[in-house]
Design brief:
alpha+beta; single chain; 11 helices; D-amino Acid Aminotransferase, Chain A, domain 1; 6-stranded antiparallel beta sheet; Dna Ligase, domain 1; 311 residues; Rossmann fold
């Protein structure tokens, strides 16, 4: 029986979601016939200690159930690869590129994938905007409302929708609690879709419909707050275009195993939001929904992801 180590938890702002994902992954792997050992990186003081612990009884592969922080930005992936451990998902370079929303938008735009207008604020720049006319210049470029988000975080942590220009500095400072830089984006009014790519092939789209407001942290992780429609009820041509964009970005970023690419669709064209190299694997997560729609249940999905890592 093959042994799989599941890493879950960690110390990022997405820790609680990671614990849920990791537990679900472990149960899925057990049902798929694997022997499972669960570890929480927060219990270790360094990557070296995590590696040393796994070297006592080396697993066939490491299943990364982490979200955000060093578990998704490429640092842990690099440590595992240097130690010779196979792991699920993408390699360190792809994780580093996609975790940085500013860099990923630049790369997507270069490949012809539409992205919303944006500005990047380093930690100290917002303090220079004391003249109301300066803030008005931002509104003139991006329009109102403005979406403000940490540049390298996920799970909608630290994101604000700014309706009044007077609230912009507060929103940027809030985002900077979770990242060294904040991304300001033009608000795109439209429907939100997620495209899971499994081994380079795009799965059916999932449409995300919050019952109230937008897809923030509360609507994302509280049952009954959002509807999920799969296959998404959207024109076939639009669905195929988003799948094509997702597969193109899969190759552009050098993704491996599985990933999820998110879009907003304004009724005429899709707009790239972000890539998730470690998509959520909770009961409310989008990747398991997409897989289930083509007959892949959760244990099968975890087994497939492990087999891709072993390959």
């Amino acid at each position: 029986m093959q042994k799989i180590t599941v890493l879950k938890g960690g110390d990022s702002p997405e820790r609680e979601i990671s614990l849920i994902s990791g537990s679900a992954i472990a149960q899925g792997l057990i049902e798929a016939g694997f022997e499972v050992n669960e570890l929480d990186p927060a219990d270790f003081s360094s990557f070296a200690q995590i590696v040393a612990e796994m070297e006592k009884d080396p697993p066939s592969a490491v299943f990364l159930g982490l979200h955000g922080g060093s578990g998704e930005n490429g640092q842990l992936q690099a440590a595992l690869e240097l130690a010779g451990f196979r792991h699920t998902g993408s390699g360190f370079a792809a994780c580093a590129l996609t975790m940085d929303k500013y860099v990923s938008k630049l790369m997507a735009a270069q490949e012809g994938v539409p992205v919303a207008d944006w500005l990047l604020f380093r930690g100290d720049l917002i303090e220079d905007y004391n003249d109301p006319q300066d803030l008005q210049g931002i509104a003139d470029k991006l329009g109102m409302p403005i979406m403000v988000k940490p540049n390298d975080s996920g799970s909608s942590v630290g994101i604000s929708k700014v309706e009044e220009l007077s609230d912009l500095k507060t929103a940027v400072k809030h985002a900077l609690k979770f990242s060294d830089s904040a991304l300001l984006e033009r608000f795109i009014k439209g429907r939100e879709f997620a495209v899971t790519v499994l081994d380079g092939e795009a799965l059916p789209l999932v449409e995300i419909r919050p019952l109230d407001g937008w897809y923030d942290y509360e609507n994302k992780y509280n049952k009954g707050r959002t509807e999920y429609l799969v296959p998404a009820p959207v024109e076939e041509s639009s669905a195929q275009l988003m799948q094509t964009y997702a597969q193109r970005l899969w190759h552009v970023f050098g993704l491996k195993g599985y990933a999820r690419v998110d879009f907003l669709y304004d009724g005429s064209q899709p707009w790239f939001l972000e890539v998730n190299t470690l998509p959520g694997m909770t009961p409310l997560s989008l990747t398991p929904m997409a897989a289930k729609s083509i007959g892949i249940d959760f244990p099968q999905l975890t087994k497939t992801i492990v087999n891709l890592a072993l390959r």
